[in-house]
Automatic annotation (TrEMBL):
Annotated region (Disordered), positions in chain: 1-30
Taxonomic path: Bacteria, Bacillati, Actinomycetota, Actinomycetes, Kitasatosporales
Protein name as it appears in the record: Putative arabinose-binding protein
InterPro entries: Bact_solute-bd_prot1 (IPR050490), SBP (IPR006059)
SUPFAM superfamilies assigned: Periplasmic binding protein-like II
Name of encoding gene: araN_7
Species assigned in the record: Streptomyces chartreusis NRRL 3882
Alphabetical list of Pfam families matching this protein: SBP_bac_8
Transmembrane segments: none
Annotated Gene3D superfamilies: Periplasmic binding protein-like II
Amino acid sequence: MAGDPTRQGDAAGRGRAPGKRNPLQNAPVPPRLAPCFFRYDEKGLKMTSVGVRRSRRLGRGGIRRVVPLAAVATAGALLLSACGSGSDSGGNAKSLTFWISTVPGQDAGWKKMVAQYKKEAGVTVNIVNIPYDGYPTKLHNAAQANSLPDLAAVPALDPIWANKLIDLSSIANNKSNKINANFVAKDSSGKVLSIPSDITASGLFINKSLFKKAGVSFPTSPRKTWTWTDFIKAADKVREKTGAKYSLTFDQSPSRLRAMVYELGGKYVHADSSGKFSVDAATRKAVKRFVGMNDDKTMPKSVWTSGADPSAMFQSGDVVAYWSGVWQVPAFAESIKKFDWASVPTPAEPVQASDVNSGGMMVGFNNNDAAATAAKKFMSWLYEPAHYQALCEASGFLPVESGLNPKYPFKSEAAQAAFKLYNESIPLYAPISGYFNTAQTQWVLKGKSLPEDPTKTELGKAINGQQSVDKALDNIVDVYNQQVGG
């Protein structure tokens, strides 16, 4: 839910058109009816559901699913209106309200864990599943009405309710949990505001059948990866030997570009201690290299200049490799039938890195002492490694905790291997991999946001020959300084 706002079809773009960000709600908004939502009791039984929205979690490729109107009442269950004007909040020691945003059927992990917690602790955690398109606004309005839930998995922090968050330091800093500190959101005092429910990462896919046909090898372990130079040389060789149309397609996404720049030793658009943004020499060199790759041989110009679909190109079987991310794995497991595919280690030249973001941000709200204490106890229990692994397995999450070995429900061997690779790779990535994820949190706490990253537009012009790469980068830096600088 949080993370790169321009990611095509991934966690950060769930429920939105590719390349569009749902802007942070930084100003008061007029009252509105709450979105229709889904609610479950502690046994995971659906009580009310209505709506149509984009597939998420195990369907990050953006497949739309229709959720039928249904009403199911069970003994002891609390019946809610699907389209009410709000939701009760401020629970107590035995009953909590937990807001999430995911497609019914893909929230299996949450339902499983609240049912288990009810059995073990005797505390009911009522899940309210809200369509993504209205979720940030509903949270914003709930804060204004003093009716926030006790717990939530949120897409981003909002200044209007950030000061109402429970400090999760005791969970994040518990060494037995092995939570990756690079992706924990903190304020300037060190208070932990949120912990990721899961993480997403950019990554590389190849057409394994084409590599085999060309007799070209590729790495399979992140500990023995290749450089960008080696990868492009191999992909070009495969293209030439097999007659494929392109060596690589590359998502039109700032996140994917950041990952490449990090791996080539740059910092991309980076702020100094005063909050002023700039780009370093390594970034300029890396971006010039990227723009040069858009030559309609190694890479098609049409993706970054006119919005052509890089995923569809790769799935056609006529492209050697695809630079995208983990959210593609479940979709590829179902959609690619005409060739064998594989996730392969991200290049390192010399830095082993990616662009890694929170899939969702777990928060607790301090509505009252009893509910806040109970909410923190639930989250402490949830992030115990055995419980958290069960959540990841049932929901198809990449864990933010290291040392786990989730067993995912995919039948595809390629999908299983892909998740294994991502889980092995992320602990090896340099801290800069989480820079943008952390930076966004700091912007929000200052009441700032970057509604539309200028990277796509400015570099599209450079690829088209309308301006130099240096000019494009200067323009990008100017927008960052205007919107989120200082």
